[in-house]
Amino acid sequence: MDQLFYYFNNGDDTKAYKEALHSLRTFKSKKAITNTNLLLAYYHNKYVAIDSSIYYTHQALKSKKNVNDSLGVRLTILSYQLLALNNTNKGLYQESKKWHIKGAELSEKHNETNLYYTHLHGLASTYITLGKTEEALDLLEKCIKNSNDEELILGSYINLGSIYSSQSKYKLSNTYLQKAREMCEKNTHRKQALVNVIINIGDNYLSIGDMDKALSFYDEAKKISTENRSYNLELIVLGKIGTILYNEKRDSEALLIFSNALIKAINLGNLDIEMNSYLMLEKLSKRKGDYRSAYNYGKHYYKIKDSIENSQKEKEINSLEVKFKTLEKEKTIKQLQIENLNKTLNIKNKEADIEKYKLQEAIIAKQNENQVLQLQNGVEKRKNEIALLKEKETLKALELDREKTIKYIVLIAFFILLIPIVGLLIIYYQKLQAQSLVNLKEKEINEQQVISLKKDQELKLIKASIRGQDQERKKIAQEMHDSVGGNLAAIKLQFSQLYNQPDKLKLIYSQLDDTYEQVRDLSHNLLPKKIRENDFIFLIKEYINTVEASSELTINVSFYDEEKINALSKILQNELFSIFQELTTNTIKYAKATTIDMQLDLLNECLFFVYEDDGVGFDVSMTTLGIGLTNIKNRVDTHNGVLHIDSKPDRGTNINIEIPLKS
């Protein structure tokens, strides 16, 4: 984990992301899993993949469920901070405020000073967005005065510049913004903060009416944010540039800017920018007289606005409803517990009285019996003592004679039995050695027979595959010859007569269309019917059920995102299905595994396929690829993918495949 965070914090975040995805499948410690999920959440937050960042943050909180030490508390506070940032990026400021308040309370409770001021700073930023500038000023001044964190001080300078700008104190605003810019230019990793500073300076020039100066600062901010993949800041800058162009009635340029911002906002899930883009496009369409487009843009604008308001109201109502139902259930449980306790006490009291009476009667009866028995025992005891003394004297004499006789008999019997036992042991040891040699020979013969049978079976499968391929080639060749070849010959003949008969041009076009359809149908027929007619994930799960029913394997599988995976091209789905079949077959034949874990993720236009078993494994450096693994490598190479095999004896096998979906 230290190595992964080192990569992430030192500019190699892509490597950290890929290794974190791989490690998430192998880590067993809850703390390690929590940290990995948190790292993935930070990565997606950095590149404004908001929904993915929120998903991994909740996964981190879920895996941390029972970790209550200081590290667990710190992880919870960091998760609250990420949730607040992501909701701010989505435009859900009330939700962001809630997470910052929870994080500040938890930080103060556990003396996490740095994180406390981090959440205060985030809360101040949210107050600025909501128009509560006085509350924001108090929090920011507290951060500058008490915090030693340069990043927080930098952010406070930026926000103070923004607040004073909103109060038309542009000179004071520029003073704080200039301090912030100097801090950013000293550190190359503060590009996002630098963009924010430049945007605010541009806002000040915009407020005093210097449009050209404002546009020059906005263009500088846009260039830096694009170079550093700060897409959310780029969206903000695009909105400001578009607004200036709109106000100057440069409608064609403004339309291009807001259309670009809308597409990027939809891809990034930024509801606030998306809503503003629809509003500005509506205004531009009205000005141009295109009222149909204006109506459509306005409809989208109000739909997003209503969905944001409804989602926040529904969460508040659901929270109150859950609290009310919880209180009612607790009251009912307490009443039932009191009633059951009273019933139990009454029953126990009655049973105790009955037992007490029975014990008293039994004690009286036992006392009477004991008195009679004591008298009888006294008489019998005296008679027995006299008889025992006489018998003891007789027995002692007999015992001495018998002990002498037994000693002689035991010695003689021991020597008589010792000789044959030693002989039998020698014979038995020789027999065991001979039997062991026979068993070893039989085992070697059986292993050779099994290897021979496997090789015969593999040869049969290869021959059957070759026969199938030959038949398919013949079928394709015949189809190409009979249909496509015939059409092309006819088209050639028509072209030779076209000079004398120009009216045949339409017939030639018709024949070309027919030939194209035949080639298209032929290519589709090459795909298996089950691939063409079914969802990919359904086929994988159906195949898993078949394998589990016919073997003792347990197969765990997960997909993300299922809808996008089902939408992949059928050719790629067919390749992935064949790869999964080949890997499963190898595991059954060679690995002696009990569990298979398979994960298929589609993230950032890249397909990640992870396959892992707990079998005997093999030494990759000492093993040449067989037919199956060679076929898999060829399939992956066809799609410009990367295949990585990680295996060692007695440690299982891990297969990682990455296939880019865009060249």
From TrEMBL:
InterPro entries to which the protein is assigned, alphabetical: HATPase_C_sf (IPR036890), HATPase_dom (IPR003594), His_kinase_dom (IPR005467), Sensor_HK_TwoCompSys (IPR050482), Sig_transdc_His_kin-like_C (IPR004358), Sig_transdc_His_kin_sub3_dim/P (IPR011712), TPR-like_helical_dom_sf (IPR011990), TPR_rpt (IPR019734)
Keyword Ion transport included in the entry's annotation: no
Cited SMART domains: HATPase_c, TPR
Keyword set includes Iron-sulfur: yes
Catalysed reactions listed for this entry: ATP + protein L-histidine = ADP + protein N-phospho-L-histidine
One Pfam family linked to the record: TPR_8
Cofactor(s) it depends on: [4Fe-4S] cluster
Annotated TM spans: 408-429
Location relative to the cell: Cytoplasm
Leader peptide range in chain numbering: none
Enzyme Commission number(s): 2.7.13.3
Family annotation (PROSITE patterns): HIS_KIN, TPR
CDD domains: HATPase_UhpB-NarQ-NarX-like
Enzyme class: transferase
TPR repeat extents: 195-228
Positions of the Histidine kinase domain: 475-663
Coiled-coil intervals, chain numbering: 310-392
Keywords: 4Fe-4S, ATP-binding, Coiled coil, Cytoplasm, Iron, Iron-sulfur, Kinase, Membrane, Metal-binding, Nucleotide-binding, Phosphoprotein, TPR repeat, Transferase, Transmembrane, Transmembrane helix, Two-component regulatory system
Its biological purpose: Member of the two-component regulatory system NreB/NreC involved in the control of dissimilatory nitrate/nitrite reduction in response to oxygen. NreB functions as a direct oxygen sensor histidine kinase which is autophosphorylated, in the absence of oxygen, probably at the conserved histidine residue, and transfers its phosphate group probably to a conserved aspartate residue of NreC. NreB/NreC activates the expression of the nitrate (narGHJI) and nitrite (nir) reductase operons, as well as the putative nitrate transporter gene narT.
Name of the protein in its database record: Oxygen sensor histidine kinase NreB
Native source species: Winogradskyella marina
